[in-house]
Design brief:
This protein has 286 residues and is of the alpha/beta class. Helix content is 55%, strand content 12%.
Amino acid sequence: MSTTTIACIGSGNMGFALMQGIAAVIDGANIGFADFDSEKAWVAAAAMGAAVYNSNTEAAEKSSFIFLAVKPQALAGVLAEIAPVVQKRVAEGDAPVLVSMAAGWTIGRIQAAVSRADILATNTFVANVPVARIMPNTPALISKGIIALTASAELSVEKTAELEAMLKKTGVVDRIDECYLDAVTGLSGSGPAFVFLFIEALADGGVLAGMPREKALLYAAQTVFGSAAMVMETAKHPGELKDMVCSPGGTTITGIAALEAGSFRSTVLQAVKSAWQKAEQLSNSE
């Protein structure tokens, strides 16, 4: 295909966020949504001048990149549906790229699901489909996400670079070995929820101290936003930046002592560990 065409199977928040970013790189008319909820697909498509495919099979037939933006538990059914079309295209030398964001589904598992002989009703060998796995997070909705990217050996350097360029409109893209993706899921995939909880708790502290709710939330959110920017822009270790705020015998070190008494750092570590272990369970349930 001379023109890059994109299909997004699934039109939830993350799929929509990625397509919205990609629409800034390629013509929205070259993007199409497929969803069992056709009304949802039409709403997503209308927002960026995209198309709607009548089925997942049609999406697989017409696209050079097929984004699999469905829940992990729904991915097996989607792959079974599109497998005959995808393998036919692979055999004809017109292989699409499958781009999965499903936690727990390894590249090998995706390729195996697409090439199963009982789906194809044939014993003819067909090369594996090119697969990329990505793990975005919800800040991609405002173009401030971080997207981990890993690719199978079948995906060319040029196609991988093209995919990375498209994804960059939704945030930072970091190429990473697949063995780290479960950890990424626990850290940056689940991490926004942990940060939102912290912001809420920080704001509650302001309310406890007598601030109006809306003011407390503003100060809490901007404090987290600015602190994150300091880590990124100064390249200083967070511990060093923390020490810059803590005067001897002052208010901040007193607050730090309260956090340490409540095992704050240990609790955050355990939250990431729990999310990572859940991702590993999904990966090992093949």
